[in-house]
Design goal:
Length: 180
Amino acid sequence: MSEVAVISTFGNDDDCARGILALHHARIHDFRAFFPFPSEKIIEAVNHVRGWGRSPVRYWQLFGGIIGVLSAIALTFGTSWEWNLIVGGRPIISVPPYIVIMFELMILIGGLSGLTGFFLHSRMPVFDPLPGYRSRFNEDKFGLVVECDETAASRIESVLRDAGAEEVTREALEPVRDNH
């Protein structure tokens, strides 16, 4: 069975958000939305449909910060035990001077892991253009792209037209080739 992309174009963000909700009511949850500027209405509609909630990037940040603190503890305590310098009867391991190093490594590794989590969860960078993308989606139009089977394409087209799409087209997708 052949795969197609149903591409719909909307003139404003209200109509596009209405199209997203119409897809949701038709039990179609696999789509991509393109818009020329950040629109609160579209973001709310996508969150309503997909139920994303909070970003998982915060867990990357948390675990990166914990790993940074544990790395700083291992580095400072290990260095003190290996090259101990006993001065004036003070303890070999004294925590207060190491707090700065713990804080710095927590911020560094937490920030780098948060950045890594952001790129992984947003699937960036995209080197190949996404199927159905049109350059006018970055200029003045809003778009929804639904990848589906040929049999479901006409139902999706009618749902999008009823939601107020200015233009609905169908584009055949290339089959994925295995280079092995």
